[in-house]
Amino acid sequence: MHICLRRIIFERLSALGLTQLRLPRTAGPKEKHIPILASNDLEARERIILVLNEASQDLGIFAWRDTRSERGGLAVGSAIDFVKEVMCHASNPCPKGKATADIVKDELQEVEEVVQSAETAARIVYQDVSDSPGIVIANPGQLIWHRRGKQAMTLTSWFSLPRKSAVHGPMLVHEVHNRVPGHEDYAAHLGSVFKDVVDPLIFGRPDGGKLPAIDIIALTDGALELVRFLDDHWSRYESFISAIALGGPLHNSNTITNSAFRKFLSRRARAYVISHLPAGTPIDGAFYGCNTYSSGEAEIAECVMGKSYPMMLDFFDEVAMNPEGYANPEVLIFENENEE
């Protein structure tokens, strides 16, 4: 079933302007590689949003449980609705007048009423939305290379492969044959995404080309790996990263050794965590070192993204409207006797 759903999701994401890139970039379709998703015209975008998902998820999936109709459906559990929302935001948002997001959403609704197809409407409307941020969705979940199938897959998919008999265990993962160099684990994959995708965008632009601002969304263990990576490489990327949103983060700010990066987190990063409080309610975020808010998801970490990405994108817009001087506002933390 997941194979069919993934195919449908990729078709819809393709209609929204995303394509699969192979890492390393020199790999052929049947050679060892890890696929990621990226906007078709990434080099032309003035803002780029990099998404670092959980290490257990398939490419383009935030939470399989949310793809069930009673929890929102395929578009909610995958990146489909998220990508639509991103494409409703301008790279250079205007603080006055009707928001670009509202204009595009109104147009999308009007077209859907005519063509009676959300996918066709997306092709018609979004092909003209060139001012929105570009998108890169990393793939830390599918880091096992299936040699016979010529594809990368998650550990869950690996365990689901046919076995010799009902009593045989799953095939062992060979650390050479079933791994892609540079993508052996989350940390290696993250480093390769920066080296092969982010670096060419910010260091490989032609002379005179405008360098893009990078916004990053990192979820659960992705937030942990991002904090570790930037703590070690902040001097290389600090001029290009505009803002960071962390969903259900696992890091402890006390482990951060780079004082400049620690200051950046306090000024231009926000965390959205599991909480019974209404979405957007400020929460004590001393542990994470940044402003922290309720995600609106009360129980399950993988569902935080589906509830909080509109707040994350609005936060990125706030920073984009004041790229030089933005700093998180001071917030009042209210105790709630029902909050555990």
TrEMBL record:
It holds the Pfam family Arb2. GO terms for cellular component: nucleus. Residues 4-278 form the Arb2 domain. One of its GO terms (biological process) is regulatory ncRNA-mediated heterochromatin formation. It comes from the Eukaryota. GO terms for molecular function: siRNA binding. This is Arb2 domain-containing protein.
